[in-house]
Specification:
alpha+beta; Endonuclease, Chain A; Arc Repressor Mutant, subunit A; about 50% helix; elongated
Length: about 375
């Protein structure tokens, strides 16, 4: 196993053990008391100093570059005198050399920044003069968003439609998000209700909320949106979201921020799934949203896409709603929903069964019922 393989110091664990075992014998000859390969590496690292008789200074002040390593195979370890070198001195010399190299790297970096500074300023002037910039391809989009994230110090507003995000995407976005929150920036994020079904999303939300972020969910459809410091916004330019527009026009960014805040007011604070009051409200909102799509005559695929759920889960919702309304066909279900008046009041609830709708002519008896258990 390598103890340190940086900077040309190929010491292994067995070399350190050989060094410790040789200390009682030194200074003096080794006489085969340690493997020749280990001795060569110890000499090269500077931990051992070798003297071949004609070199009588024995000051042990090697620089660890292997220049006094000798040829162990031709001379043998028993034909020379060895002296142990204080490992602290070796570390100090190596630290000084590493710091010197680091200073050189930092100098090159600063010179590069100074050289590119005029180009960076020219690009920013060009970008800001046009008010927007188009980014094509996920790599370019993510790079632009990463830069905006690093420059964000006050607030980020994000709308993330489409239901749960993958664990990989959430893992990649977590470090820069936490770094931004660590700088004191505020964060508001809106998901669709269906995101609550994802364990990865719940874990991600729990982590960022612990660092000050706020997360809510909404039953309606919305487009992806990211706003940084209310100065720059990212919106999709194509349906497949492989092209994005970076907007820096103040009036447009303000308009998008106001639209976000309106959605934020209607959204529900994120909580883990469970039959608490908030989750019950979300269930009712999702059911009522599906009923509205049925009355509008939308196909299952359209309804599912708008609400961020799978087509199969949408069909399960509709089948159970049909049973409760006593409907035998899609057309009849739409008619019964419209006739019931369940969509006319904000606090409307859904009938337990078709028998309930016949209890009082011309009226609908409504009652809350549990969430469906269908999975995506």
């Amino acid at each position: 196993m390598w103890v340190d393989e940086q900077g040309g110091w190929p010491l292994r664990q067995e070399d350190i053990e050989a060094y410790a075992s040789l200390l009682p014998r030194l200074p003096g000859p080794i006489d085969g008391a340690a493997p020749p390969d280990a001795v060569r590496r110890l000499v090269a690292s500077g931990l051992l100093h070798r003297s071949d008789g004609d070199d009588g200074d024995g000051d042990g002040d090697g620089d660890g570059d292997g220049s006094d390593a000798g040829d162990g195979d031709s001379h043998g370890t028993g034909s020379a005198t060895y002296m142990a070198v204080n490992p602290g001195h070796v570390c100090s010399r190596r630290a000084a050399k590493i710091l010197e190299e680091a200073q050189e790297v930092v100098g090159r970096l600063m010179r590069s920044q100074e050289t590119l500074a005029p180009a960076v300023e020219a690009y920013r002037r060009h970008r800001d003069s046009g008010g927007y910039e188009v980014h094509s391809g996920l790599a370019h989009i993510n790079a632009a968003i990463e830069i905006a994230t690093r420059e964000c110090h006050e607030e980020i507003l994000t709308s993330q439609p489409g239901g749960p995000r993958s664990a990989e995407v959430l893992a990649d976005s977590l470090p820069p998000t936490l770094a931004m929150l660590g700088r004191g920036a505020r964060m508001k994020t809106i998901y669709q209700h269906n995101a609550r079904t994802s364990a990865a999303t719940r874990a991600y939300v729990r982590t960022i909320e612990e660092h000050g972020a706020e997360v809510r969910t909404l039953d309606e459809n919305f487009d992806r949106l990211i706003i940084f410091d209310r100065k720059v916004a990212f919106i999709p330019s194509t349906a497949d979201r492989t092209v994005a527009v970076e907007v820096r026009i103040p009036a447009v960014v303000d308009f998008l921020a106001v639209a976000f805040e309106r959605s934020w007011i209607r959204a529900v604070p994120f909580t883990p799934p469970g039959r608490d009051r908030v989750t019950a409200r979300i269930t009712d909102e999702l059911e009522l949203a599906i009923l509205r799509h049925v009355v509008a005559g939308d196909k299952d695929a359209v309804t599912a896409q708008q609400l961020g759920i799978s087509v199969r889960r949408c069909q399960e919702y509709i089948a159970r709603l049909s049973a409760r309304f006593g409907s035998r066909s899609r057309a009849q279900l739409g008619y019964l929903i419209a006739k019931s008046g369940v969509l006319e009041a904000d606090s409307a609830e859904i009938p337990e069964s078709a028998a309930c709708t016949k209890a009082v002519p011309g009226s609908v008896h409504v009652s809350r019922f549990p969430a469906f258990s269908g999975a995506d």
